[in-house]
Amino acid sequence: MPLINKPAVGPFTRTERIIITIPVLSASLLHAVNMTTAYVALPNIQGNLSATPSQVGWVITAFVVASAIGTIITGWLSNQFGRRRIFITSIIGFTLTALLCATATGLNELVVYRFLQGFVSAPLLPISQAIMLDTYPRERHGFAMSIWSMGMILGPVLGPTVGAALTEWYNWRYVFMINVPLGLIALAGIWAILPEAERQTKRLDWIGVLALTFSVCALQLMLDRGQSKDWFESTEIVLEAVIAAVAMYMFIAHCLTSRNPYVNLAIFRDRNFVVGLVLIFVFGICAFSTMLVLPLFLQTVQAYPVLTAGWVLSARGVGTMVAMLLGGVLADKLPVRYLILWGLMCLVISNGWMTTWNTEVGTLEVTWVTVLSGFGMGMMWVTLTTVTFSTLDQRYRIEGAALFALIRAIGASAGTSVVIAVLVHYSQVNYIELRENISHFNEVIRETAALSILSLDSISGLRTVYNMVVTEARMVGFLNVYVFLCLVALLTTPLVFLLRAPRPAQN
Asked: What is the pTM of this model?
C-alpha cells in the first residue's frame, strides 16, 4: 500500500505533490542519464570486446530500437496492469539489465542486454510525464512540465561527464554499474509513495502493434545504417525503406478500418495534440542534431581540445535550464503559443547566425549563440509538453505521452541522419572542388608561395595546403547543416498559430 492513499488524479496537497515529484523525477533522470553515458564509453567497449566501429554502434542502436518498441505498448500495459505496477516493474527491469550489461563478456551478449534494457525502460518517460500531469492541477501544468523536464536536460549534461569520469578512472563496466544503486533509490521512492491509477482494460490490437513495430524498427535501422551503407545504393537500405513504408501503410489502414485499433483515432481530434506531435518532431530534429554538430564543429574545424569544447557546450545547458525554469512560470500566465514561437525564433536566429561563421569565429561568439540555441530549446520543450496535453482527455494521457515520446525519438533519429548526410556530402563535394584549384597556376597560391608561407614543392607545404582544404570543406559542410536547421525551424513557425487556449478536459 503506497504512503499516499489517494486516486492518481488527486486532489493532492502541496506537500503530497512534492513527495510524489521527487521519486518520479529521479526515475526520469535515471533514464536520461543512461541514454548519454554509454556514448562516451563506446571506444573503450570497442577495444575491450574486440569489436569494429560498426559493430559497437549496435550498443546504441539496440537500445534505441527496443525503446521505440516498448514505447508503442506502454499505454496498453499501463491500462491493463496498472500504471504503478508497470512503473515499478520498469525500474526493476532497468536495474537488473544494467547489472547484466556491466557483467557482459562479449559484444553479442552486451547488445542483447542493451536491447532488453531499452525495452523494459521505455515506459519510464511517458508514465512519469503522465504522473506529473495528473499530480498537478491544470493551472499548474506548465510548472509541472518544467520540473519534469529538468530530468531530461540534466541527463545529457551529467551523463557524458559521469560516463567519462567512470571510464577514465575505472572502466566502461562502471558506466552501467552506476545505474544499479540509482535504480534502487528510485525504486524505493516509487514503491513507497506512488498511488495507483484507474485501469482501463481493453484488448491489445496486435495487428496494429506489429505493423507499427515493424515500421519503426525498419526506419530506425535505415536511418542508423544509411550513411555507412551509402543510403539507397545499398539493397539493405532499400529493403528497410520498403518495409517501413509498407508497414506504416498497413498500420494506418488498420487503424481506419478496425473497431478497436491500437491508436484510438479520437485522440487525433484534439488539434493541440496533433500540432504538438508535429512540433515535437521538429524539436527532436533541432535538439539532437545540434548536440551532434556543435562538438564536431568545435573539435574538427576550431581544433578545440575535448575539455574546452565541453566547457563551451555547457553554456547550451545553462541556456536550456534558464528557459525551462522561466517557461514553467510563464506558461501558467501567458499564452503558450507565444512562448513556443519565442523558442522557435531563438532556434531560427541562432542557426541563422551560425551560417555566417567561418574558421576564425571567436569563442565568445560561439558561446552566446550556443546559449541562445539552448534557451530556445528549453523554452520550446517546457511549453510544448504543456500545451500538447492541455486539451487532451485524461483517459488518453498515457497513450498520448507514449506517442509524444515516440515521435520525438523518430525526429531525433531522422534529424541526426539527415544532418550527417548533409555534412558528409557537402564536405566531400567542396573538398573535390577546392582540391582542383590547388596548383601553381592559381594566383593566390603563387602569391602565398612568394611570401614563403607555403610551397607545393615541399612535404610540409603540401600538408599545410591539405589541412586548409579539408578544414574549409568541412566548414562549408557545417554551414549547409546550419542552413537546413534554420529552414526547418522557420518553416514550422506557422503551425504555432493553430494552437488554441486550454479548455477543461473531460475526466
From this structure: 0.74
